Amino acid sequence: MGEKENIPPPRLTAGAVKRASAMDASNSQPPSKKNRVEVSWLPNPPNAVTLPGDEEEAYEVEDLQVAAPYASSLYQFLRSKEVEPMRRPLSDYIKTIQSDVTADLRGQVVDFLVRAAKTYRLKLNTLYLAVSYIDRYLSCKAIGSERLLLLGAASMLIAMKYNETIPSHVEGICYVTDNICNKQEVMDMESDVLKILKFEMGGPTIYTFLQRFIKAGQKYEKKNSPVRKFLAYYLAELSLMDYGCIKFLPSVVAASAVYLARFTVVSSIHPWNEELWRSTGYKARELKDCVHALQELQNKRFSSLKTIRDKYEQDKFKFVSIVSSREDVLDEWWEKEM
User: Fold this and answer.
1) Contact 79/276 with Cβ under 8 angstroms?
2) Its pTM surpasses 0.90
3) Which residue among 11, 56, 62, 113 is least crowded, i.e. fewest CB within 10 A of its CB?
């Protein structure tokens, strides 16, 4: 077998990033679409969770999955679904399945999708679903690094069709990639993703569990802390960027994000309480490895992938991405089990 061809990584051009940034900077009309198809779904779908000018309301929406009459049964059902092999990516697929794809390239594509989801005000779970499709696909089929962005585009398109109410268009996905991916390529990849995943597009994500766990942590508090809440969302999104977090179940990541958020805000009180243990089913020590992984991401300041950090470094999110936590103090709590 000859020497493997050195294929360059998918290039996220300045034009693509600029196109997304321009939409984010103004809540009016998208940039000039001369010689472009109409992308009517992009500006602000009325069903979108995130609302123009009041984005923080997206994090207050009640979900049927946290409604008291159904909570226990739904939670047990979701926990059973998240462990099904068809819904779980391989934790080592880059080593065992892929030859051209690296953790850094995966991070670049996820970072780009985070920007697109934020810019076009997609529902919070749409991004989580898209990243799940990417990891599950890469766990089954090897692809060249030059097709990784195409996989990301097709996965986002499928997630939008599954999770958004307003119909999405292939042209819109091509537009946001600065036409690096053309319509036929995206359609072909979409078909391949659906076949490889056997049309199993649902299933619980980190976001599915996060609302329930945040609500559980607030139950006996006199005053709910928006900083804790936004920190939990921020840490959960950071986990999407890290290939190493794939090995953790979505419920474990969600619980760990809540644990670390609570510890970061008040390190003198045990982050876990009886209500969180009862609601999540996890004891504090069962979250130790994942909490440490999230803390490493939280305190890491030199990554070139800054979209999530920039998103949460705003007043409406209480600037939570600039906050760090103390590793030495955190280690003390593992011995004091709740």
Assistant:
1) no
2) no
3) 62
Q: Using the predicted structure, report yes or no on whether residue 27 has a pLDDT greater than 50.
A: no
Query: What domains does the chain contain, in order, with CATH numbers?
Result: 16-25+47-70+87-196 (1.10.472.10), 206-333 (1.10.472.10)
Q: What are 276-311's pLDDT values in tens digits?
A: 998 899 999 999 999 999 999 999 866 778 899 999
Q: Do 109 and 240 touch, CB atoms closer than 8 A?
A: no
CA distance 35 to 58: 34
Residues 14, 151: contact at Cβ < 8 Å?
A: no
How far apart, in whole angstroms, are the C-alpha atoms of residue 235 and residue 263?
A: 12
> Cα 250–199–114 angle (5° rounding)?
50
- For residues 259 and 239, the answer to whether their CB atoms sit within 8 Å is no
- For residue 189, give both structure tokens: 């990849």
- How far is it, in rounded angstroms, from Cα 37 to Cα 46? 21
